């Protein structure tokens, strides 16, 4: 039919050659870790097996596997064939209900309507930033420093400015509340907090959370709480969700299966809406619902399996994971505490350990990046430099790798630091 229409004369010039360029949006999408790592010259010592203490993926070495119950739940969902179609964009009702139940604790009760299933916690974060921060109004959001670099990637790609508030290494990586308050302005649309923290491995206690929420309350700024490491805490510590602190602050809590269930590739995340005074009632719930329609919901197989994953995974699985991580953390801490020029921070949870590098004792290197590069070259050990999280002069170790490799890596770090350490006055 269209062929019969009279040809419209084109006013644009025909072109000789193809030139397809990427949009400004795509060009402005930055992965800060990749950018940093790609610019490093990383040539391992061919004599030594590379030990990567840099990848925040607990599955890479194969020593940590998800629970059988989790695998069975997914296999049965696939075989059953009832979850192959589209489901509601916010998620299957029974899966949302299961997440609501899983997260309801410490006097905080969620219902099905409070849960939105997303394609990984990264996607949850993106929806939360998108719904709260408006680039057309010049909004900014506050993010932690050091912190997970994805916050900045997501915000800036949306045209939302980020402002960083400091965490205090000497105060167990608590938020510098005065600094946080000083970063707030009239255009601040949300504050992201991350507890337990990647990269610090630290946990906020009830009182600190209360102080944070008091600041948010004073300026009426909603919180985006990244709690992907919820309950991943070592003996002697407790995880307190920001939502269980009594306050009027509306919050969007982001979480998912990736870390606690050891399946980051399954891309199952969620948003839990905690709204004690109904501030999100009119627009934010609707906005999140509309935004979830962009990708027509998350993976339906994992959604179908979710009730069983959350209800039937035995506590022994969770305890076992914590035992392993805790043991690795203690090994790394013990080794590195004896290394002159390094100051490890014993994590309270998560899968990471931060180590301060006393750069003045390593005058051969002008930056931590250089030191890290040389360590790869001589010892084939690679950790992410603190620069990736906004804090130069530190390195972050991933403690999910097998115990033997943690020990071997620590030996090599010890040898390396011993070689370059210089006493200074
Ligand atoms: C791993 C991680 C995420 C992302 O989790 P996915 O579910 O894999 O998208 C979010 N926040 C922090 C702090 C993380 O470490």
TrEMBL record:
N6-(pyridoxal phosphate)lysine PTM sites in chain numbering: 259
Record domain Aminotransferase class I/classII large: where: 49-413
Pfam families recorded: Aminotran_1_2 (PF00155)
Family recorded in the similarity comment: Belongs to the class-I pyridoxal-phosphate-dependent aminotransferase family.
Keywords on record: Aminotransferase, Phenylalanine catabolism, Pyridoxal phosphate, Transferase, Tyrosine catabolism
Protein species of origin: Agrilus planipennis
Cofactor(s) in the UniProt record: pyridoxal 5'-phosphate
NCBIfam families according to UniProt: tyr_amTase_E, tyr_nico_aTase
Purpose of the protein: Transaminase involved in tyrosine breakdown. Converts tyrosine to p-hydroxyphenylpyruvate.
EC number(s) per entry: 2.6.1.5
GO molecular function: L-tyrosine-2-oxoglutarate transaminase activity; pyridoxal phosphate binding
Main EC class the enzyme belongs to: transferase
Pathway in which this enzyme or protein is active: Amino-acid degradation; L-phenylalanine degradation; acetoacetate and fumarate from L-phenylalanine: step 2/6
Subunit details: Homodimer.
Domain of life: Eukaryota
Protein name: Tyrosine aminotransferase
UniProt record, GO biological process: L-phenylalanine catabolic process; L-tyrosine catabolic process
Catalyses which reaction(s): L-tyrosine + 2-oxoglutarate = 3-(4-hydroxyphenyl)pyruvate + L-glutamate
């Amino acid at each position: 039919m269209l062929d019969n229409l009279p040809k419209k004369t084109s006013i644009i010039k025909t072109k000789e050659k193809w030139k397809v360029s990427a949009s400004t949006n795509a060009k402005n999408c930055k992965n800060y870790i990749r950018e940093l790592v790609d610019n490093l010259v990383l040539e391992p010592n061919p004599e030594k097996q590379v030990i990567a203490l840099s990848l925040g993926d607990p599955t890479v070495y194969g020593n940590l596997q998800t629970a059988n119950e989790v695998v069975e739940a997914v296999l049965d969902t696939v075989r059953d064939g009832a979850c192959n179609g589209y489901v509601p964009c916010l998620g299957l009702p029974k899966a949302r209900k299961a997440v609501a139940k899983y997260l309801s604790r410490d006097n905080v009760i969620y219902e099905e309507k409070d849960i939105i299933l997303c394609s990984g916690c990264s996607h949850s974060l993106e929806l939360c930033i998108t719904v709260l921060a408006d680039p057309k109004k010049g909004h900014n959001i506050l993010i932690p420093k050091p912190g997970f670099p994805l916050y900045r990637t997501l915000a800036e790609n949306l045209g939302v400015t980020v402002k960083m508030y400091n965490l205090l290494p000497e105060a167990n990586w608590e938020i510098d509340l005065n600094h946080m308050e000083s970063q707030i302005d009239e255009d601040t649309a949300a504050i992201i907090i991350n507890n337990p923290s990647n990269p610090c491995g630290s946990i906020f206690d009830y009182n600190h959370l209360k102080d944070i929420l008091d600041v948010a309350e004073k300026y009426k700024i909603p919180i985006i709480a990244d709690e992907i490491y919820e309950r991943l805490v070592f003996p002697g510590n407790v995880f307190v969700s920001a939502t269980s602190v009594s306050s009027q602050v509306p919050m969007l809590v982001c979480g998912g299966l990736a870390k606690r269930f050891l399946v980051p590739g399954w891309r199952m995340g969620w948003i839990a809406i905690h709204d004690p005074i109904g501030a999100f009632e009119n627009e934010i719930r609707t906005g999140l619902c509309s935004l979830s329609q962009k990708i027509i919901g998350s993976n339906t197989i994992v959604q179908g399996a979710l009730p069983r994953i959350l209800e039937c995974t035995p506590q022994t699985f969770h305890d076992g994971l914590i035992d392993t991580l805790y043991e690795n953390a203690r090994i790394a801490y013990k080794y590195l505490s004896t290394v002159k020029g390094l100051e490890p921070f014993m994590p309270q949870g998560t899968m990471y350990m931060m180590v301060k590098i006393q750069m003045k004792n390593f005058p051969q290197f002008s930056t931590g990046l250089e030191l890290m590069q040389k360590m790869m070259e001589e010892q084939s050990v690679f950790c992410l430099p603190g620069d990736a999280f906004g804090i130069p002069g530190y390195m972050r170790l991933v403690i999910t790798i097998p115990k033997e490799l943690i020990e071997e890596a620590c030996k090599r770090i010890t040898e390396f630091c011993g070689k370059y350490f210089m006493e200074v006055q």
